[in-house]
Amino acid sequence: MNTTIIVITSFIVSFVGTAIIHPYLVRFAKAKDIVDNPNTRKLQLRPVPVLGGLAIFFGIVMGLIACCTITDCTPLFIVVSCMMIMTYVGALDDVLDISPIIRLISQVVTVLILIYVGGFSLNNFHGLWGIYSLPEIVSTPLTIIAVVGIINALNLIDGADGLFSIFCICVCTLFATIFHAVGDFPLFALAIASIGAMIPFLLHNAFGIESKMFVGDGGSLQMGVVLSVFVMEVICKPEYSVLVAQSNLSLVAFVLAALSMPVFDTLRVMIARIAHGTSPLIGDKTHLHHLFIGLGISHIGTAVLINLLNLSVVGVWYLSAQNGCSADVQFYTVICMALLLNCGIYYGVALLDKLIPEKMHQARLWKINHRPSRRFFDFMRKFVDKM
């Protein structure tokens, strides 16, 4: 199988597909007032269209259709169907603000389709704690909880321009590497198509003014399904056990490391809300991206920084595997590193705010007043608005 052709075809077609449909969706969303309005917990200053998920879905599907001429993509039928369900549920939520219960039910139903129709599941720990194959009575509820958690963690990370799309590009690249290593070409094509579809959206989201659009719940729920499928594929398919035997890689530790920042950020926020006696479902400004932007870091700087933190967790996991650490040690290493970076940074800054408030205030002002030259950003804004 010529993987170069798959990469070129799926990437280019998905990139072009998203780039073409994006401006039409922006105009449609503005005309129909399908926008995300500013409020006390959001960071934008004006209404922004929220149909970016439809543009990404269109690009991914076009990329996969093109790949069907090269490799058999029929195993992805159920995956694309579940992506479509979540895209439309999310888009309806963006437009009509549906109830959280309906959203939750739709997510659980989607996971059940992936389990019982698609054959995906978290049914193997690959030696973690000495556990290998899991019985269905354990794997099914575990899969539902984990996948619903991943989907909502992806939804909550979408709070700064460029953060969500850069994260998805990085994680899809990591999984594409794994899929290529074992010859899983359908999911390899899906990962590459997702990267290609994300890049035009990233440019508009991070730099656009007139063409700016948010991914919306339609996009975050959709990509939550994609990344969840990647996680389940790596965990449940026996061919990935070769990586455990040959390279001493703990697959459970890998998937946790790849999704570490949104997962641990969500856990920290939810636990803190419950500890303070508030509902974990009520939004606030306690996510890590809110902290960085509050420190005076730009949106794109915040997006890059959080993704570098995420990749550093992956890097530490990989080093632990290469140094012969057991599956248990690799797993604990990922947890400790993720907690250190997420909770350590968040509560460390809070402590400094109490101990040296004046210096922290001066540091914020310095960062705001000493950002990089606006020439590059002005050029990019004019460029993407004309795309």
Strand order of the largest sheet: 1-2
**Fraction in helix:** over 70%
Strand percentage lies at under 5%
Helical run tally: 16
State the shape: globular
List the domain count as a whole number: 1
Strand-and-helix sequence, N→C? HEEHHHHHHHHHHHHHHH
Let me know the largest β-sheet. Answer: 2 strands, antiparallel
Mean pLDDT: 87
Radius of gyration equals 21 Å
Number of strand elements: 2
Structural class: mainly alpha
Please mark out the parts with pLDDT under 50 across 5 or more consecutive residues, or reply none. Answer: none
Cα end-to-end separation: 34 Å
Overview of the structural elements:
- This protein is mostly helical.
- It has one domain (3-385).
- 73% of the residues lie in helices and 1% in strands.
- It has a two-stranded antiparallel ribbon with strand order 1-2.
- The longest helix has 29 residues, at 3-31.
- The chain is globular.
Brief descriptors of the model:
2 strands; mainly alpha; 1% strand; 387 residues; 16 helices; 73% helix; two-stranded antiparallel ribbon; single chain
Short description:
The protein has 387 residues and is mostly helical.
Secondary-structure topology with pairs:
Elements: H1 3-31, E1 35-36, E2 48-49, H2 52-67, H3 77-96, H4 100-116, H5 136-157, H6 163-182, H7 185-207, H8 216-236, H9 241-247, H10 251-258, H11 260-275, H12 288-294, H13 299-322, H14 327-355, H15 357-369, H16 374-385
Antiparallel strand pairs: 1-2
